Amino acid sequence: MFLKSVLAPLLRRPPMVGRVVVPARSWTQVGNVVSTPPRVQCSFAEKMVHGFIMMFIWLSPICFFLSQLKVWRRTYVED
Fold first, then answer.
1. How far apart are CA 49 and CA 42, in angstroms?
2. Where, by residue number, does the polypeptide cross the bilayer (predicted)?
């Protein structure tokens, strides 16, 4: 009786051949369009410190790469 109650819905269901289930995107996944003022004001010094930290993080890999070009090309040894 248990197997019949479990297997019966599975056997009656049509096969899922060729059916692609794509979830619909809702508006909350896209984001909010309305811009509002900030909830907490940020001081100018905090903005400057944050800007310098971001510049350091973004530019340090580029500076390292450019400083290592001589080493990778082996042009640092004068003949």
1. 11
2. 48-66
